[in-house]
Amino acid sequence: MGNKKDFGWYACCIALFLIILPLGNVLGFVSGNTISLWGRYFCFAIVALGVDLIWGYTGILSMCQAFFFCLGGYSVAMHIVLRGATALGINGIPMPDFMAWNQVESLPFFWVPFQSFGLAVVLGLLIPAAFALVFGYFIFRSRIRGVYMAIITQALALAMWLIFLRNETMLGGTNGLTDFKTLLGLSLSTPGVKLGLYLLSLLTLGIAFWLSTKLVDSKFGKVLQAIRDSESRTSYTAYRVMHYKLAIFIVAALLAAVAGMLYAPQTGIITPGRMDVRASVEMVMWVAIGGRGKLKGAILGSLIVNFLYSICTSLFPDSWLFILGFLFIITVLYFDKGLLGMLETVVAKLGRMRKPAAEPTGREVMQP
Amino acid sequence: MLLTVKNLSVSFGGVHALNLSHFNLLDRELRVIIGPNGAGKSTFLDILCGKTKADAGEVSFDGHSVLGKSEVHIADMGIGRKFQKPSVFPSLTVYDNMLLAFKMNKGIFASLFFKPSKEIHDRIHEVALKVGLQKCLGKIAGELSHGQKQWLEIAIVVLQDPKLMLIDEPAAGMSDEETEKTGELLLQLARQHAIIVIEHDMKFVEQIAQDLVTVLVRGKLLMEGTFDDVRNDQRVIDSYLGRANVQLENF
Q1: Is the pLDDT reported for residue A364 higher than 70?
Q2: Binning pLDDT at 50, 70 and 90, where does residue A29 land?
Q3: Ranges for the ABC transporter domain (chain B) (predicted)?
């Protein structure tokens, strides 16, 4: 019965996002902006999957997921900006305009690999993964957990934000990277490319969800929940807890990076504002509001909260943070299983109300 | 000799928690450790399973030194620990609790590509039957009663197939009937594993103490003998009475 209900949900999602919205876009009654907006929501949903894996399933409150998201985003943005570069360095290699304005003479060495799209993608995945591995190794080896984990990851997010803000970092400083023109020879402003990126994000979200489901249902996923429940018991049962924590930290970082790579070309700009502490905290809130410890909850939460954000910022521009805070408090106080948990409770109650009415007919059939 | 302990000592903030001159355990022996509160019984088990680091001494298990090794390493060597407060995975089902414990390769990739087999399934059912949880396999572990959680934790330890089981107050918080069942279970398990049990309940000790009983007082070994030796020893009675614990006297 549960599968049938799930099937209905999936069918609705596919119908809406894979057929109605794209078709509407092609026929002209859904604007390109709406398509790009939802494409970006899908990116956020991919990050949320990672947050749910590490926080919802494993119980590690990581508050630096937005940083990993931006590492992915910046790597693709760097490639796009390099391709559209008009200024020339003294060695004749093109470099982004903002560097020329900042009196930089030639392209810094770490920008060079990003001239190639393939290398940009590889580095966009490799750097966050390596970062998660090294940083995670030191945190988990010292057995830092709970609130301390949240604080230390926030400190990391803050430090990285400050580094990216500086002009000397050569990543565009406060203004970030913008003025995106083409990616792989395709103009990013055409409706067809926008729709393509939207579909690519949807597809990636689908794949990420499917892989995460596999991961959670495997024995590996059960070990993650075991770590959340009782870390010491997991150790005494001969599981090397640190290996599992590191693995899931890297997986979450990779999901965030992939999302960032898809996000940057659809938004047309990436700034350090995307990686500040607030951004990471908001990612955790999406998952909390949607339903922690359930992959569908993470997706639902990120889509709904971001959709609300878009509506609220146009209707009441100043009150968005109050609305988000209110939602979060209500969730924590009354719906600790999030929106999804609330929906399931309501459905279960409706089912119980309907059952007594259905029972007599069942008995009548049995009597003769 | 499965376990040999020599001059083991540990202190917390200058207080000697444990100062054990010697302790030996044979394979498949069921040893009961008794002693008043603060005698260092749990500390002793904590050192054996790697939870607490010892200051000095030697612990040799199955020919290998235990001290300084990690919890996972010690568990791999074949020492399983059951804690005083039931420590299970409350949000997983009873079956999954037992599946995770089952002795197998516990690396990341082994877990990722794990396929359930009939052998594992049968073994889990067998152990579940032994601890009386065969009807609760599909239940969430957090919903079990206190006694059932204790049994589940024993099942977790059994499924690791350890050579030595360290069991801390298994009967705490159990009804008389549950306590007796637990005693029978331990006696049955002692045919395949060496077991060290810590217990306060003298009635329970009498039921399971088929071999030797060790008495610890203030971190030191007071005496070792059969249950009758221990019960009639004046020093043991004094140390319990000194703690205003009348349980032994009444017995």
Answers
A1: no
A2: confident
A3: 3-243
| Residues of A with Cβ-Cβ distance to B88 under 8 angstroms | 229-230, 233
Beta-carbon separation of A219 and B114 below 8 A? yes
Question: Min CA distance, B117 vs chain A (Å)?
Answer: 13
**What pLDDT shows up at residue A4?**
63
Helices B146-159 + B94-101 axis angle, to 10: 30
CA-based radius of gyration for chain A: 23
Distance CA B139, CA B141 (A): 6
Interface pTM (ipTM) of the complex? Answer: 0.86
* Structural domains counted in chain A: 1
Residue B128, domain extent = 79-161
B87 in any annotated domain = yes
This prediction's pTM = 0.88
pLDDT in tens, A161-181: 999 988 778 888 888 888 888
Please provide the DSSP assignment of A330-365 as one string.
HHHHH-TTHHHHHHHHHHHHHHHHHHHHHHHHHHHH
Structure tokens at A54: 């590490």
Residue B153 belongs to a domain: yes
**Consecutive H or E run containing B15:** strand B15-25
Number of A–B residue contacts, CB under 8 Å: 78
